Structures are given as structure tokens and as C-alpha cells.
């Protein structure tokens, strides 16, 4: 299995960065795009990394936020035969409430239209776990079990902040390899511990080679960080690659307190797991 990070908050020299995430996966003969960043920077970085977007077989969106879906319209024009996997809750109206008021964090209107205009046979809507060709597995809705994990922000379904957005469409994916599970996270609003436990329960596997992606710990307090480290330390994980919304402080905290290898992810990073 090969993973190339196309978009991240950090980047290698010669590549662009933005608040967003996108990864290109190659597994079992399938080419999968996981998330589409915030803008068309995805296409520019892909070209510079030698990734042919027209070769994509499947596109998986981790959840319905603008920074994971913004480049989708461009990708759909390039990947003319790719099938799109979306959780049923992806297109909800969503807002973040801050001191200056509410602002939308939902999928942009032009991207919604691009999804709606896609032929029915190229769209797969789901909620439960499923497997796509190449041995890539999608978690579906992740149960929230831990007491210390939450969505990581002030997210609501309305501008007034009356209805909390639990982000039930937040999903992750994984593949089984001879070296252990390879787990790929989008934003992990479900919580990294909840997500890994969900994958272990479904796969009936515990050994993990790599966990890569956004872990949404950027606003996490000490209690959540301690709880996360305590639970992750009890798991058989070889390597952790925090990206995007993990945050620099949390990434450093994980590196200093976990007993596994921790590498900061960035656009241009390539991982190969045999």
C-alpha cells in the first residue's frame, strides 16, 4: 500500500500548503483519493508530485467540511470515471460559532452541485461500514464511546447554535497489510481512540503499522491529551503520522509521550507499507 499526502497544513519545499487535507492511496490495484483539500491546490501539488488525478478509481470524503471537499469539483472533471463515496450526512448545513458570530464550514455550494450533478451510478451513499475494491475499508459512522473525546469544536447545524452538530458523517478508512493495519484519518471528529477501537472491532485485528491523518487535537485540553496518550499507549501501534487539524502542540505532545514512532505529516510525504 502506498500513501502520498497531496494537501496538508505543512508542505515539503516546492509544494503549496493550506488548511486542508487530501491523500492519494494505491492499494490492491485501486487508486483512491481520500479527501480533496480546501481549494484546487490539490491539482497543483498532484502535478508536481507526479500523481495523475485522471487515474483515480474511487474518491472517499471523510466528512462534510469545506477544507476536505473544496477541490472536489476540479478532481471530478479530471477523474471522469471515478466513483464517489459519501456518508449520508455529508451535505448538511454546518456552522462554527466564534466570537464574531457564525460562519459556514459546510461543503461549498458549487461542490454540492457538482456532487448532485454526478450520475447516480457514480455516487455511493452509505452509513454502515463497507469495503471498496483494493481492500480499502470505510468505517461508516463511528460510535462515540470515550468520555474524554468530542468533536473538537463549536459545531452546529444552525447559525443560532441551537442544534449541536455531532458530525456523525465523520469516517476513516483502513487496509489490512502483512505488517498490520494501516489507518487513514480525515479529521477524526469522532476521536482517534474511538476510531481505532471501531476499526479493531470490525477487522478483529489489533496490530497497527501506521495511523496517518488529521486527529483534531488542535483545541484539545490537557485532560483529553492525557486520555488520548493513555489509551494509545495500550495499543500495538508502530508509527503515528499526525497531520492537518492535529495541531503542532498536540503533535509534539504525542511525540514526547507515546512509545511509538511519531512523524509530523506534510504535503509531499510518501508512505509505503508492504
From TrEMBL:
GO terms for molecular function: transferase activity. It holds the Pfam family Lactamase_B. It comes from the Bacteria. SMART domains: Lactamase_B. InterPro entries: DHPS-like_MBL-fold (IPR041712), Metallo-B-lactamas (IPR001279), Metallo-beta-lactamase_dom (IPR052926), RibonucZ/Hydroxyglut_hydro (IPR036866). Residues 19-215 form the Metallo-beta-lactamase domain. PANTHER family: METALLO-BETA-LACTAMASE SUPERFAMILY PROTEIN (PTHR13754), METALLO-BETA-LACTAMASE SUPERFAMILY PROTEIN (AFU_ORTHOLOGUE AFUA_3G07630) (PTHR13754:SF13). This is Metallo-beta-lactamase/flavodoxin domain-containing protein. It comes from Sedimentisphaera cyanobacteriorum.
